[in-house]
Amino acid sequence: MVGLSQCYNRCVLRCNLSSRSFCAFYLQDNRVFAVDAVDRPGNFMQVRRGLDQSFSIRAEGLEDESIFLKELLAEPAAITGKS
Hints:
CATH class: Alpha Beta
Structural class: alpha+beta
Radius of gyration: 11 Å
CATH superfamily: FAD/NAD-linked reductase, C-terminal dimerisation domain
Oligomer: single chain
Shape: globular
Number of domains: 1
Helix content: 25-40%
CATH topology: Enolase-like, domain 1
């Protein structure tokens, strides 16, 4: 867990039911500010670094397991903090 999951207006789950692993992303106006991760150390570390930059990210992309999280974090919106 990283960040404080209080005062969010959306929670997005990225999960794999067969492996029982997930990340819960807590967003306020498309800005991820907290993450709870279970059996997803790689995703956790990627997002942890991004939280220091207060990045914005498409919530739709977070749900889609076919899109690598690293790709979502490399998008211009993620880097600039603009959505």
